[in-house]
Amino acid sequence: MSDLGENQVENNAFTEECHTVLNAVSDALYAIGGKWKLMIIIAMARGNKRFTEIQRQVTGISARVLSSELKELEMNGFIVKKVENGYPVTIEYELLAYSETLEEVVGAMTKWGMQHRAKIKSERSSKVLNNELG
User: Which UniProt keywords apply (predicted)?
Assistant: First the structure.
């Protein structure tokens, strides 16, 4: 009977730990998930501050989507929108210090992405070679 009780405690701890991890990943994906947010941050970290500069660097993003993503990044404390009144009005986006907390994430994703691309290319070339030989 005591084994059953210990297993129940272990299962509860495992389940609780699983929920904690899932909630943390869910929170992260809410803040930086999707196709564009990290790419926008990376483009900005490379010196692109104006809307059109960011849109030019982040290939394929529409103006409407970029505008929406910039608002969400601002809401989550990664960037700030700076408006300079004058003629013409200039708008620039600036990364806040909090965006630097993503450095490790971006580094890990970059490394993994390069490995994944190499793996896929290798597998495809192996299949082509096998098809030619077989």
Answer: DNA-binding, Transcription, Transcription regulation
Q: Does 49 lie in the same domain as 17?
A: no
- Closest alpha carbon to 81 in 51, 60, 46: 51
User: Is residue 113 a contact partner of residue 69, using CB atoms and an 8 Å limit?
Assistant: no
Scanning the structure block, which residue is given the tokens 């941050």? 41
Q: What does the pLDDT read at residue 11? A: 75
* Residue numbers of the domain that contains 129: 33-133
| Nearest residue to 43 (alpha-carbon basis) of 95, 81, 109 | 95
Determine the pLDDT at residue 132: 65
My answer on whether 75 and 105 are in the same domain is yes
Q: Which residues sit opposite 91 in a β-bridge?
A: 83
113 vs 130, higher pLDDT: 113
Local structure of 58: helix, strand or coil? coil
Q: Count CB atoms within 10 A of the CB of residue 69.
A: 21
Position of tokens 């960011």?
54
| Among 71, 45, 75, CA closest to 58 | 45
- The tally of domains found in the chain comes to 2
Based on the fold, state whether residues 65 and 28 are members of the same structural domain.
no
